[in-house]
Amino acid sequence: MFEQLQQFLSSTPVTDYRIILILVGCGIFVGFINTIAGMATAISYGLFMMMGLPINVANGTTRVGVLLQFMTTSAIFKKKGYLDMKTGWKVGIPVGCGAIFGALLAAVLKVKIIEIVMAVLLPIMSILLFVDKKKLSSRRAAGPSLSDLWIFLIFTAIGVYGGFTHSGVGLLIIFGSYFFLGLDMIRSNAIKQFAVTVYTPLALTVFIIYGQVNWAIALIYAVGNIIGGILGSYASIKGGEKFIKIFVTIIIITMSTLLIIKQLRS
CA-CA distance, 68 to 80, in Å (whole number)? Predict the structure, then answer.
């Protein structure tokens, strides 16, 4: 069944209404989860690879939808009063600087190396999905704050990861804003939306220069990302959050397993 699905996705033109529905539907789902929790971009990678895109092109193609989605959600958080622009730039600038380097790595490294790195990194990053944010609120130490230099370096390192692969960077920005800037989770999530909006055009530019964006797939998928992002911004996730986390983790493990098997067979 899996092989039949892969055959259908890789052999059917992107203009086919069934492919369009799959791209938009998956885009909505991923956009929704990325706004609420994160890590769902791994689903995008899996879908695009099944459609026949190599991992580096799948990586670049996801960035179009990510940019348009987070531009939309940033505006919503700003309108609600949760986004402080001064703090947003304090995070966005170093993340953007790091993202350029990370995107260059992803663009110039051999596909095989990228596949191995992502097969290892994504399952590790998925652990962040299961960190209890409420317990963090009661455990956060009230110790001395870090200097601006250290904060800049930390968010630059997060940007390097985000430039290399978008999947999971939102969670890193949220936790970085929470622990090192003292923001609550809602405002940390708002900072995530803005920081991603700042760094994604820089990373996307690198992928465009190296010809690693499939525009037909990217633009159709972006429609779904925007819709999902809007729904996620207004949604209040309670009982359904656990299911989302488990589902995304299953997708991540499946994708990583496929990448590992591919390397063992090559």
Answer: 19
Q: Which DSSP string do the residues of the chain spell out, in sequence order?
A: -HHHHHHHHHHS-TTSHHHHHHHHHHHHHHHHHHHHT--THHHHHHHHHHTT--HHHHHHHHHHHHHHHHHHHHHHHHHHT---HHHHHHHHHHHHHHHHHHHHHHHHS-HHHHHHHHHHHHHHHGGGGGS-HHHHHHH----PPPPHHHHHHHHHHHHHHHHH--TTHHHHHHHHHHHHH---HHHHHHHHHHHHHHHHHHHHHHHHHTT---HHHHHHHHHHHHHHHHHHHH---STHHHHHHHHHHHHHHHHHHHHHHHHHH-
Place of tokens 């098997």: 261
Query: pTM score, two decimals?
Result: 0.78
Nearest in space to 158 (alpha carbons), one of 220, 93, 210: 93
Q: Which residues are CB-contacts of 10 (< 8 A; sequence separation ≥ 6)?
A: 50, 51, 52
pLDDT, tens digit (0-9, with 9 covering 90-100), for 154-202: 999 999 988 988 877 887 888 888 778 888 777 888 898 999 999 999 9
Domains of the chain, by residue range, sit at 15-265
